[in-house]
Amino acid sequence: MKFVSDFVSLMYPNICSACNGVIHNTDSVVCSFCLSNLAKSYEFKDKQNKTAQLFWGKVPLEHAFTTFKYVKGNKIQRLIYDLKYDGNTEVGKVLGVEVGREIAESKLKIDVVIPVPLHPKKKKMRGYNQSLFIAQGVQEILKCDLNDYSLQRIVFTESQTRKNKLERHDNMDEKFAVFNTESLEGKHILVVDDVITTGATMVECCKLIKGIKDTRVSVSALASG
Ligand SMILES: [Zn+2]
Prior knowledge:
By secondary structure, the chain is of the alpha/beta class. The protein folds into two domains: 1-37, no CATH class; 38-224, Rossmann fold, CATH 3.40.50.2020. Helix content is 37%, strand content 18%. The chain has nine helices and nine strands. It has a five-stranded parallel beta sheet with strand order 3-9-8-4-5, sandwiched between helices. A two-stranded antiparallel sheet has the order 1-2. The chain has a two-stranded antiparallel ribbon with strand order 6-7. Helix 9 (200-210) links the parallel strand 8 and strand 9 (216-224). Helix 4 (75-85) packs across helix 5 (89-105) and helix 5 (89-105) packs across helix 7 (130-142). The model has no long low-confidence stretch (mean pLDDT 89). Bound molecules: zinc ion (ZN). Zinc ion (ZN) is lined by residues 16, 18-19, 21, 30-31, 33-34. Zinc ion (ZN) binds next to helix 2.
């Protein structure tokens, strides 16, 4: 059967999502050269890294991981674009595996991985939550649980939006909530997102998770930017 699969890959070669080169004899969407040369940030080696600092005074974190360097025009930027806007969900898993390896190297013991949920409107348009695929890659390495139901985005109905307008931040038509939290009690939870910018979304998610009995929380993203 190897002959058949070689023949198929000759007819329909896998193209690397980062460099457009042909990938030989592997099912990955990123070639081994690109994968071993992706720009890593190594920020995780410093417990007080600049992503961790976004949480200071807001919510206590165990650790913050932002695995890659996001630079205009670099392969990471292209891969993240493919993941978010081009339906290339497989890229999320490949990069998630790299995030998982970094966390494993840090010797931090994670019990549960939770992807940041996408706004329902965006999910409907995109058809998938990119953070879920990253979380799957992380889980593959850490061999922990993946929970994609306890943390959810709550969308206000139009009447509620009008009613609560004065009490809420401008143009915030949604918020997060946690459900079925028993299985998260006492656990170290890693919240996974694609890119961390201001950290506001992550802070809100982490606050909710810290509100569950005896939890510890860490965050990870592919990059900050
Ligand atoms: Zn490549």
